[in-house]
Write a structure and sequence with these properties.
heterodimer; A: alpha/beta; 5-stranded parallel beta sheet; 37% helix; B: alpha/beta
Chain lengths: 213, 362
Amino acid sequence: MRTILCYGDSNTHGQIPGGTPLDRYTLLQRWPGVLARELGKGWHIIEEGLSGRTTVHDDPIEGALKNGRTYLRPCLMSHAPLDLVIIMLGTNDLKARFGQPASEVAMGIGCLIHDIKELSPGPDGTVPEIMVVSPPPMLDDIKEWENIFKSAQQKSHELALQFEIMSDSLEVHFFDAGSVSTCDPLDGFHINAQAHENLGVALAREVEAIGWK
Amino acid sequence: MRFAPPNPLRIADRASGLNAVSVRSYNERLVLSLLLQNSSTTRLEIGEQTGLSAQTVSVLVRSLEQEGLVAKGEAQKGRVGPPTVPLTLNPEGAYSIGISVGNRHTDIVLIDFVGKIRFHKTLPNPQLAHGSNHSEFLETIASAVKLLPDAERERLAGVGLALPRRLSGGMDEEAYFKALQAEIEEQLGIAVFVQNDITAAASGESMFGAAKTLSDYMFFYLGADLHGRLVLNHQIYNGNSEVSFDVGIAALERDLSAQGKEVDPLWDRSGSWPDYGALVSDWEERLIAQMRASLHGVGQFVEIETVILSSYAPESICRDICRKLEAAAPQIKAIAGNIVPAPKAIGAASLPFSSRFMVSGN
């Protein structure tokens, strides 16, 4: 049995576009569920999505608990041994309150990769496979979120390239979710059921392509 | 822990053309070498053969995919364990031009990344000029470059020029080739790789042809003369000795002329000769005797099990010679080369690929 941890934000949690964190797609609709269905027997998929999760920031408004870095280590320890950790974060780092360029968000992802490597929660204490997934770019119209994400739209288009540079530099797997899915017009930064389906299927193919012994 | 900005070297260069030679990493060359040797492989196999981690292979393959050099196939399901995804070279990923100056003609080919001929032309030989290393080479090369559609020109890996020893006119071959290469490159702005024609033919056979899976063998090229090259551990030994024997097609031509037979078909690329009967058998006997003598000489130092015979002569003739050689020397396996119709030109075209994409020794 191989184990995959899907570590993300509201788009891993399955938050329905235009809704609140309590409005959620069903387990089988969310991309980790689709991934589990596609990979089939022999794979255990752990879904770990939290709305508002950042890469490395304590959120001054939503709270320190949104910091993806502080929760990652206990989470890895809980679920070790892990064969693969998929990280899909970044959108929340673009909130105006953090004032980060896309390249800094990628640096945050880099911290998480370093943390995973350092902890080595893979089989027999090895470094697990790590896959960075860049979120699909935000749409221009993000409704009542405009002020929270002031000028984030442009930066969200740069995430894929910056994440890929970081992934190449640290030699981990990379996938651009924007290549198979888009955000839903209802709020402009959440993905709908179809996008979850597309992403889950595409990631299953990427996971298989890793080349498992 | 390192929190410096990441090094964007590998992927920041997203031009649609080919990356500069100097930035291609050793590991990328390793992956491309494996793909050139095997028509299809998987990331798992690459990892096993190179000792690189799955994540490192993933980064390399992604960068090669983005550059269009490597293509991903459909996942193969149905075996035990997860499906495997085959990787192949993308035939349209790179092109190369090969020019070979022969006894009578110059062959020009344009090949794709898997060695398939896209264009082939046969021209009269260029004439050498005084005061320069070349004269009509430039026109020949320019006409070859024009064979390539505009859209694909930026994917041209370079031009390979295969020259016979006699063109160096007694000069040191290596110095002559270097000077010629520099002169053409300066005027044309395209990477030009020059090599001895027989060595080039061996390298073509080793990259795309019958010798693809062989690491040690004796290579014979049957042209106007018979030439030999020793290949050990994938390395073609390009020695300085005058290794050619007057038992080639020129010798057959003399026999046929003496009998008043028509000899022109010997030199064309049509792949068939008229039935010359016993004259050909007699010539083949002498040819095989010479090949055996060469093998005997080499055999004092290296055990040779395989012979590759490459030629633009008809395949049926080459197979016949191989059969007879095997009959005369049972310990030898003789294989006719399968790079037709211009093995030296295709060999020349393999030079830019091996220089730009492969690790040396493969």
